């Protein structure tokens, strides 16, 4: 059994209103009755059986099957070029749909268009300028999304409960972001945004550790924001509570307002981070600001001292990401002595990081020409 495709004709275009079937691979036609398919209707893949058998059925003339709210069985779909609009909830709850290539002409998406779908990754077409509210809400398998340069706005709760989303780059033209954009995106660890965007809204729901890049016309700044947690403690019975926050991450997020960044305040909070966060986090804070020192007006010496005191922790972070360029930055910032370089090389050898061990021993020999000619890896 295949698919039943319900459609309507309007002037020179055709719109597919509903597709019902058994989940077999489906290729939508580029035209129907000589008219180009330009739109997919709301709740198009709300699934259900084919009450009239498979084939093409015009509407009116045939009753449109009712919307079903059960998970759909659509797993493979090919969309034709020419589609400019996809309606509300068109792919909602298509839990077996893992991948989808969108046509380049697509300009409009309806609210909740992919809500609860099984998408794992997706690239949005270049012509798309707006993402509606709840566009990818509840897409719990979505790990990566590529946003187009033309994108201007992202609706409220657009990525709500996308619990596996890892890395997002908001394009330079993005000016509006709705509330709850990344609510419950607990795996989001890297975020890049243009300057001028409302960072207080963007960061409001992100409590997890985050590498944040802010792109300015004359450069970029990179920050590490440590994670934080909180709990409510009863003060007096029965309903008076106070909030206890753990970690300096919440304070750091207060440095990012709706349109600006308080760089000096970010630097000042480092003393609080030293008291409340672990060494791995504070080393990352220091290394990020020293490596990308955009508007680093004060705090440089504190960062350098902390980095120099925890070189092995910094090296481990660089090795974890195979960040060879970062190693050169670390060496130039701290100028470690021979003893420190030897200890770092030993650390790299223990972790079987051959390049890092070799580079550190090379730097160690450079400080004492002729003293050593060979070393073991």
Helix content: 10-25%
Largest sheet: 7 strands, mixed
Mean pLDDT: 92
Radius of gyration: 27 Å
**SS-derived structural category:** alpha/beta
Number of helices: 10
Number of beta-strand segments: 20
Describe it for me?
Strand 17 (210-216) and strand 18 form a beta hairpin. With 377 residues, the chain is of the alpha/beta class. It is 25% helix and 23% strand. It is elongated. The protein has helices at 199-203, 249-253, 263-268, 270-276, 279-291, 300-309, 311-320, 324-334, 338-350, 354-367; strands at residues 3-10, 13-21, 26-27, 31-32, 35-40, 55-58, 77-78, 85-86, 108-109, 121-123, 130-131, 144-146, 153-154, 167-169, 176-177, 190-194, 210-216, 219-225, 229-236, 240-246. Strands 1, 2, 4, 5, 6, 8 and 9 form a 7-stranded mixed sheet that branches. The chain contains 10 helices and 20 strands. The mean pLDDT is 92.
